[in-house]
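Appendix B. Worked example

We walk through a single record from start to finish. Start with the input: the chain for UPF0309 protein MQN93_16270, Streptomyces spinosisporus, length 251.
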Amino acid sequence: MSDGKLADQFFDAAIELLQRVRDEEAEPIRAAGTLLADTVADGGRLFAFGAGHSSLPAQDVVYRAGGLALMNLLTVPGVVGVDVMPATLGSALERVDGLASTVLECSPLRSGDALVIISLSGRNALPVEMAMKARALGVKVIGVTSVAYATQTRSRHSTGTYLRDHCDVVLDSKIAIGDATLTVDTVPAPFAPASTVVTSAIMQAVMATAAGTLADRGIEPPLLRSGNVDGGHEWNSRVMEQYGDRIFYQR
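Next comes the structure step. The output line below is what the pipeline stores for this chain.
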């Protein structure tokens, strides 16, 4: 099998997943975008969290040209990204009970805010506990996950529940268990994961919906512009000054 054919198969698999999400998750995406718009209009703050590779779509909407300036990254030391050493420590921390509660208690989140939690499996203690604790604090929670995991795996949280069970809005990425999209006889394990591609697209679709919803209400969306276009820095300075009390990544 040629490398080119495998590349085509991956693109086909990713495109099929994106089409499924577009067609089957249109209403949840609209609801999530509306929830974020409501939060902005009501003076709330926006946060996103993901552990391990699920942090990549969360980071993609923070301090991003064309994105909402109010979206802040909720960080958990050793969990966001894959820069912790050893890398396996990050996966282990996702299974630690109590970590999410401690993080939220030390975070700026408060009642009236919105938090997007991204977890492909949604089964580990960290995302489940984070969703439960956030809602108890009066924070609205949007979960981005693969619902298939909740039907075919065992929860690692003491309640036996999953991320999807503790959200105001659930977005299903449609990713199959194990994430990888390709298999061939000559390769002993499945490969070519698509969760980052699909989840990042979901996040951008939600951001676009939120911006459009605000505009429809006569509210200028607090969007950032690229610093590499003329006037971009001046534009961003204005937005950050106007919304400085709701932006935490510049402090």
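Two observations about the output. Residues 124 and 156 are 5 Å apart (CA to CA). The two ends are 51 Å apart (CA to CA).
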